[in-house]
Design goal:
Catalytic activity: a myo-inositol phosphate + H2O = myo-inositol + phosphate
Keywords: Hydrolase, Magnesium, Metal-binding
Structural class: alpha+beta
Strand content: 25-35%
Radius of gyration: 18 Å
Largest sheet: 7 strands, mixed
InterPro entries: Inositol_monoP_metal-BS, Inositol_monophosphatase-like, Inositol_monophosphatase_CS
Protein name: inositol-phosphate phosphatase
Oligomer: single chain
Helix content: 25-40%
EC number: 3.1.3.25
């Protein structure tokens, strides 16, 4: 049954990847870009606090993607950031047998609200905890990164190879905002402030993953595990030759239960180095 379903999804991706790309672009064109730098005050709300924002663009783009992606793959379900915020029980679909679209309509909402181009739309297709394909669309820059498991990562049709860091320079690592970390996670992340590393605050998670896949950023170290922030980017990094590890040395699982913080890096050696610092922090 698993093999039959996986084959069906592989066939779907061979036939419909361009349709998924089209759905992502159309959602951004209809609901996100018209509101970019034009948001009214009543189109922006807070969720858990002042750093956790949601806009009409988030909500409406997710509704459109939910309808369009579900129609493309009958029998699939959607786990979207805003739908889960409204009903946390929907997150459990990641543990089910149906193919799951994992959607973050506007990753980097804070940047979007402030008129910064550093936001993107993230879509991933997963089945039984395995991410099979992903789309990362930076609408304000009209850049689209895609990955299919076992078939490589691409940015606007050009193959991505992250490659190892240049020897002899500090590793640049984008890290979680302190507002999203527990005291224990803060201690772990502080271990990255050491010789040979150059930590900096992260922006949009999706765009940070793209920077890793492009070899422009050496690693990320994040303290939260919401699947919509990580699924698309982790596959992109993997398919560009990178690796990801949790604090206990295991690969990150989109279904949850990870030892946090975790890292994704442009090569395996860098991933192990960052994960070891996170693990041994006191």
């Amino acid at each position: 049954m698993i093999e039959a379903m996986t084959e069906t999804i592989d066939e779907f991706l061979a036939r419909c990847s361009a349709d998924v790309e089209d759905a992502v672009r159309k959602a951004a064109a209809a609901e996100i870009l018209p509101r970019f730098r034009r948001l009214a005050d009543d189109e922006v709300d807070q969720k858990s606090g002042p750093h956790d924002l949601v806009t009409d663009a988030d909500r409406l783009a997710e509704l459109r993607l939910t309808a369009d992606l579900g129609a493309l793959l009958p029998g699939s379900v959607v786990v979207g950031e805003e739908a889960v915020h409204a009903d946390p029980a929907t997150y459990a679909a990641l543990q089910g047998d149906a193919p799951v679209w994992i959607v973050d309509p506007v990753d980097g909402t804070r940047q979007f609200v402030h008129g910064d181009e550093g936001f993107c739309t993230l879509v991933a297709l997963a089945h039984r905890g395995v991410v099979l394909a992903s789309w990362t669309y930076a609408a304000a820059r009209d850049q689209l990164a895609t990955a299919v498991r076992g078939q490589g990562a691409f940015l606007d049709g050009e193959r991505l190879f992250a490659g190892p860091p240049a020897p002899g320079r500090d590793l640049v690592v984008a890290t979680s905002h302190p507002d999203y970390t527990t005291d224990e996670q803060k201690r772990a992340l502080r271990a990255l402030w050491t010789d040979g590393l150059a930590p900096r605050p992260c922006g949009s998670a999706g765009l940070e993953y793209l920077a890793v896949a492009r070899g422009e950023l050496d690693a990320v170290a994040f303290s939260w595990e919401a699947a919509w922030d990580h699924a698309a980017g982790l596959l992109l990094v993997e398919e560009a030759g990178g690796a990801h590890l949790t604090r206990d040395g295991e690969p990150f699982r989109v279904t949850g239960g990870n030892a946090l913080p975790f890292t994704a890096a442009r090569d395996t050696a860098t991933a192990h180095r960052v994960a070891e610092l996170l693990r041994t922090a006191t």
